[in-house]
Amino acid sequence: VPLAWALRAAGHEVVVAGQPELAGAVATAGLPFAPVGRGDALPRVLRRMRKRPQTAEAVDWHDDRTWRMPWDDLRANLRHTVTFWWRMANEPMADDLVDLCRRWRPDLVVWEPTTFSGAVAAKACGAAHVRFLWSLDLFARMRGLFLERMGEQPLASREDPLGEWLTGLAARYGVDFDEELVHGQATLDQVPPSLRIPVSERVPVRYLGMRFVPYNGRAVVPEWLREPVERPRLCLTLGTSATDRFGGYTLPLGAVVEALADVDAEVVATVPAGQRQGLESLPSNVRVVDYVPLHALAAASTATIN
What we know:
By secondary structure, this protein is an alpha/beta fold. Helix content is 39%, strand content 12%. The protein is built from 12 helices and 10 strands. The strands form 3 sheets. Strands 3-4-5-6 form a 4-stranded parallel beta sheet, covered by helices on one side. A 4-stranded parallel beta sheet has the order 9-8-7-10, with no helix packed on it. A two-stranded parallel ribbon has the order 1-2. Helix 4 packs across helix 5 (116-125) and helix 4 packs parallel to helix 7. The longest helix is centred in the N-terminal third of the chain and has 34 residues, at 71-104. It is globular.
């Protein structure tokens, strides 16, 4: 949102494209929105998979142990990631996104690290395009390590699930596959250079530094947060993804709050009203609130627990 508004303030015309479910969030930010495709496939499959017994341990692509797996296991896991995440998030929107770009004729397409259809749409209409990171560049690191492992295999055993899928997706719109579709012509990075993680030379990433600016949506700063703080304040926040997408927190919130009872600090716990089971009896130093703009709460806090 800060980037989009900075572009508008500089005189550029900006439109945000995304699944229809994002319309409310984009409109709240005061930005024009173009719905593309549909966004229900991935959540639907996640719900279905949660009901099934786990047959294998989830792979953490950013754990060095993952990269020591046998090659057959490694490529099978990447195939699963491509099929059940990236493909399902991109394919339903690709047609609409390419059509939007060909009609609207943007000069620049900015896409987040797993919306590869944004890169394809940019190529299809002749626009420049850049990736916008929302974390460390774990995706470029993952891509580089995979290409290195693949290069060590005999030709008959080499398989690139991401490259093969993107090649087919791009071909629908007359676009040839290259690594630009994976990493963009440049990458906007809000992480200072000293904190970036190493990326293989196999992937051509060109970083453009950008200052992080918080955006927490529309909010009213409550009166108690504007009052002077008499002792240290701790902010306890577990985000909204776990409760919105996965049905609850992944740790016993009541036990966490109870453990803070003896801390000489005011504890502010941001917990949605529907997730307060086990919090009926609160320590005297704990305040439970619903949504609070985090940039305002963080500025008045000594530390954050998340």
